[in-house]
Amino acid sequence: MTKSNYSECNRAFMKYILFILISISGAFSSICEASMPPACDSKETEKVLLFLARKYIDPLWIGKNRRFTGTQTLSANKEAEEYQCRTRFLYTMVGDSKNHVITYTIYWNDPVKKQFSVELNSISNNR
Fold first, then answer.
1. Strands 82-93 vs 96-110: parallel, antiparallel or unpaired
2. CA 51 from centroid of its chain's CA atoms
3. How far apart (Å, rounded) are the C-alpha atoms in residues 55 and 49?
4. For residues 105 and 75, what is the distance between their CA atoms, to the nearest angstrom?
5. Is the distance from CB of 116 to CB of 38 less than 8 angstroms?
6. pLDDT by residue, tens only, the chain of 127 residues
7. Residue among 95, 112, 58, 79 at smallest CA distance from 49
8. DSSP single-letter state for residue 6
9. From its phi and psi, is residue 104 left (phi > 0), alpha (psi between -120 and 50) or beta?
10. Which of 40, 55, 64, 84 could make an SS bond with 75 (beta carbons 3.0 to 4.6 A apart)?
11. Which residues contact 9 (CB under 8 A, 6 or more apart)?
12. pTM metric for this prediction
């Protein structure tokens, strides 16, 4: 085996090892993340937040252009399997724009069935 073939073989082997390590790392991180409920900015959480906004902020659902913006994860407690979050709910009503800052907690009801809850901690009215 010539020196150039040996170094090419060595590089290929190192790339293969690196690929294996990255794959294992990704598998472990996905296993760890699987125990947490949906994230603060996930589609599932947003659906629940829209339901809660309809119930507590705009019960007649007459506001238009409803959206969440600036969603933040305030904390992630892996032992309790919950997130503390904050978002801004924006909508317009009769030409006037409204916004509310919502803080909420996401936690599992039943992690096996992937059932979670969103608990509203506070809603502040920022006109």
1. antiparallel
2. 17
3. 10
4. 10
5. yes
6. 555 555 665 565 555 554 454 545 444 444 444 699 999 999 999 999 999 999 998 888 888 889 999 999 999 999 999 999 999 999 988 878 889 999 999 999 999 999 999 999 999 987 5
7. 58
8. H
9. beta
10. 84
11. 1
12. 0.70
Place of tokens 């030409």: 95
**Non-local CB neighbours of 56 within 8 Å, separated by 6+ positions:** 120, 123
Tell me the C-alpha distance between 106 and 67, whole Å: 19
Structure tokens at 64: 């238009």
Buried b (16+ CB within 10 A) or exposed e, 35-56: ebbbbbeeeebbebbeebbeee
